[in-house]
Design a protein that fits this description.
By secondary structure, this protein is mostly helical. It folds into 2 domains: about 30-90; about 90-138. It is built from 5 helices and no strands.
Length: about 140
């Protein structure tokens, strides 16, 4: 059989129509119990991390100069809990848009905060000294 004859023959494709076949981003529907359980886990972790932060800040459980570092670590853990359990940011291929939106939002906040600090620093440097301002008043 030549290649030309082979090209005109219909292809036999075996499609499986099982319930596990879906395209990326077209995930099967999950029951409401899954979402409620996830939200409750997230709430529990958030409350636990908040209680631990208040306990560390209000007591002498750890060495006092280390308390700010411990609170920063707990704050980062709290952000991770919120990202995973409430914003549903995961490493799946269908979450690329969510991750890009999050990165863009963080970048905008970073630019606004950095720009504000930069502007305030330049205003402080260019202000007239207080002694000269007092001399100008009648």
């Amino acid at each position: 059989m030549s290649d030309l004859e082979r090209d005109h023959q219909p292809l036999e494709v075996s499609w499986s129509h099982g319930e596990h076949d879906h395209s990326p981003g077209d995930e099967p529907a999950e029951d409401a119990g899954h979402w409620i359980r996830n939200a409750n886990f997230g709430l529990g972790f958030s409350v636990l991390l908040t209680a631990v932060a208040f306990a560390l800040a209000g007591s002498d459980i750890i060495y006092p100069p280390v308390v700010p570092v411990a609170l920063i670590v707990l704050a980062i853990a709290q952000m991770g809990v919120h990202l995973v359990f409430f914003l549903h940011i995961t490493t799946g291929p269908d979450n690329i848009n969510n991750v890009l939106a999050l990165v863009f939002g963080v970048m905008v906040v970073f630019l606004i905060v950095l720009g504000s600090i930069w502007i305030m620093d330049h205003l402080t440097q260019n202000m007239m000294p207080m002694e000269k301002m007092m001399q100008m008043q009648p």
